[in-house]
Amino acid sequence: MHSEVERLSEMAQAGERMIERLRKQAFLPDSRKGLNIRFGIAEAAQLLGCSTNRIRMAEDDGRLPPPPPTENGRRPGYSIEALQHMREVLGASPARAPLDRPAMIAVQNFKGGVGKSTVTTHLAHYFAIQGYRVLVVDCDSQATTTTLFGFNPHFNITREQTLYPYLSIDPTQTDLLYAVQKTPWPNVDLIPSNLELFDVEYELAASGADGGSVLASRFRKLKQGLEDLARDYDVVILDPPPALGTISLAVMQAANALIVPLAATTPDFCSTVQFLSMMDQVTGQLSQAGLTVDYDFVRLLCSKFDGNDPSHAMVRQIMEQTFGPALLPVSILESAEISHAALRMMTVYELERPIGSVRTHKRCRANLDEAMAQVAALVRRGWGLATPASPEAVVNG
Ligand SMILES: Nc1ncnc2c1ncn2[C@@H]1O[C@H](COP(=O)(O)OP(=O)(O)O)[C@@H](O)[C@H]1O
Ligand SMILES: [Mg+2]
């Protein structure tokens, strides 16, 4: 005889087994050998901001390896590694100058399901394709971002590989280097998470009267640890838990920029307003306690816009009226391509071929590029750089 409560454990175990099955499917040797995306020469030239001729000449005179050989009459194109090498040889790296501070972007809202992890991972892969060095830090014990990098947080990640040993009340690590893992992307590293990271929150609750000082010391520690790591990166992207807790506050304080994703729905609008006023109070309290919060930019990003739903257009308009230029002009469109890629534990940027129709895929990809470019422009502005004008912008005056 099973009680309903015992069913919880059965359901959890059946769920874990299914996740592992899905992950194995996503990683069948045939379906995913690392990162298989390729870029044609025109695309490569556009990404490097040079002419195709410049690439061909460097290939001819031996500065670059010969172009990838044709397969079945088609050139498979350049890998991300090849693009990175090309950037080095042709002096086309977008990396920050050594004295510019790395962007440390928290993608935060206190609501679940608003697209934090989707924005985090797509932003990371967008920056990687553009040639930046990226570190993603999964600070959420729900670990969706870890999953989207192809790890099963339950089976592949131990507590010792998360932020826990560093943030614990009895820390076993004095810096964060131990936690940095390689990903299939040559220029994206990840600090993964799993459910056990939540122990950090329990420990604080149990620390009783010392709570305040424990909290402050953890804030300082996370900020210091991330700043030390960030020296090797251009962009650090933080995916905090969707609640007001130790870790999320520590992340908000460590970050130097804030992106707030929300859908164009009334519940998301209302909870985002709550989030903003809570942030306002908390940052005030933190600075009274000598913990400064300082952001280069704070922007809202509409993360799942459905153009066919009139209510989305209405709420988006309300958002524009309310937040003005703090709302990024380009929304991420709701797309089956994004949710289908998520089912394969991937981002749209990792797909070698469309999951849905070519048209759906292209539309989704173009929209993501445009939405993510808005964030890249803010980062580059922080480094005193103007974003190169897009060809369309020039054409359209
Ligand atoms: N633009 C989008 N189009 C389609 N599905 C999306 C989009 N953005 C997010 N989703 C889906 O919405 C769900 C919640 O997104 P997620 O990024 O996990 O939110 P959060 O991290 O805020 O909890 C996921 O299933 C994700 O695949
Ligand atoms: Mg998430």
UniProtKB/TrEMBL annotation:
<dbReference type="Pfam" id="PF13614">
    <property type="entry name" value="AAA_31"/>
</dbReference>
<dbReference type="InterPro" id="IPR025669">
    <property type="entry name" value="AAA_dom"/>
</dbReference>
<protein>
    <submittedName>
        <fullName>AAA family ATPase</fullName>
    </submittedName>
</protein>
<dbReference type="InterPro" id="IPR027417">
    <property type="entry name" value="P-loop_NTPase"/>
</dbReference>
<dbReference type="InterPro" id="IPR009061">
    <property type="entry name" value="DNA-bd_dom_put_sf"/>
</dbReference>
<feature type="domain" description="AAA">
    <location>
        <begin position="104"/>
        <end position="283"/>
    </location>
</feature>
<dbReference type="InterPro" id="IPR050678">
    <property type="entry name" value="DNA_Partitioning_ATPase"/>
</dbReference>
